Amino acid sequence: MLYWRPADIRAMEQAALTGGPQQDGERDALLIRTLYVGALRVSEALAMRPGDVGPGAMLQVHRGKGGKPRPLGITPGLADGLLAFAHRRRLQDRDRLFPVSRSTAWRMVRRAAQLAGCWREGARPHLLRHSGAIERLRQHGNPRALQLHLGHNTLDMTMRYLTTLQVEDAVAINQAVDPEALEITPRS
Question: Is the pTM for the entire model greater than 0.90?
Answer without folding.
Answer: no
